[in-house]
Amino acid sequence: MKILEKLSAYNIELPPVPKAAGLYKTVLVQDRIAYFSGHLPIRKDGTLITGKVNLDLTLKEAVLAARQVGLNILASLQYELGDLERIEKLVKLLGMVNAESDFTDHPTVMNGCSQLFLDIFGNESGVGVRSVYGVSGLPLNATVEVEGAFFLKK
Amino acid sequence: MKILEKLSAYNIELPPVPKAAGLYKTVLVQDRIAYFSGHLPIRKDGTLITGKVNLDLTLKEAVLAARQVGLNILASLQYELGDLERIEKLVKLLGMVNAESDFTDHPTVMNGCSQLFLDIFGNESGVGVRSVYGVSGLPLNATVEVEGAFFLKK
Amino acid sequence: MKILEKLSAYNIELPPVPKAAGLYKTVLVQDRIAYFSGHLPIRKDGTLITGKVNLDLTLKEAVLAARQVGLNILASLQYELGDLERIEKLVKLLGMVNAESDFTDHPTVMNGCSQLFLDIFGNESGVGVRSVYGVSGLPLNATVEVEGAFFLKK
User: Fold this and answer.
1) In C90-143, which ranges are continuous DSSP H helix?
2) Which of A26, B51, B54, B145, by CA, is between 20 and 30 Å from C153?
């Protein structure tokens, strides 16, 4: 199944393409690697999912925030690559969770993003290496930020 | 000297191979680069070294935690690559230390991991670029997390 | 215009080459990618810009700290590459800002570094992907740390 068909099958509509704040690119392709900038959980209506896990929002809401970051990453990639079919596989994800010092379930939050890529790209192509940790703060008080890299087809 | 002989000479026994939590790979090889996920300081008996430096454990204990992360990375690489001799050199390490906002000696903690790789791979191959910083929290309250990449022989 | 001429035109004098603390390299080149370690805002006189944004120093001072990190990165690259003209373009930057949990303007801080690279390398070569976030602490209580990678000419 094509990726756009999968998105449709999962009833997923990509959010608007995130705008780069000017001094960076959202995606940079070099030698078959598509590096993408730290993306935030922007909703379809342009608003941002903000706040710290377990303080301002629940774990479940934070998981959805991480998934929303993934959707923004897909929107950026589709725009910059022209076609998501150019992606061969996920290489790596680095996830930052906005959380106080007593929060320890960052992997569950990050799974919101990882599960999306697994669903869309499948077992062979949607699973890469990953790191996730808690940070003292994120731009605009976003709940999650994810950056990483995909490998492209020849 | 072969790497396994060095491990033996240093009296190092690798811990059990860390299990990936399912939505990521511990190691991904692409074009001679072996990317590895954020690893945690899991002891040989399967328990995790937890807590914040200078609060729950001493600096010296945190250095040993970082070294333990390094051993877990080696265990993953040996399992995924089949043979640690395939490694040509370390490329980069990214280290996250679980610490409160008044802690400033993250490099000393990280040296526990860096020194291990220097001992095992030598001056030519065991020293790459590195970043280290304090985070508000880590998965399962681990003391240190390290991710990075090695370059493989042809 | 050559990069050294641009530095001169902007009246920029590079700080002394930062010393690696021994267990890592400041720069590592592999296959046309120059990876650089996390750099700190060391002034020309060798002292470090320290403290947390909005607590120990102002936002404006933190922006200058990020710019100072960029100058240290350039000093390392010039030393390790021999010639900054070998750089084809910036690939990526990862920025860590030393800040309490209520700070949310990490992008403005990071722009201090990004603007420098844009000025020196231009629109085509000085803009890569980027991530930035707040951390609970940095080595030696530095205000900003930046690591990343440049792509080199053939």
Assistant:
1) 106-125
2) A26
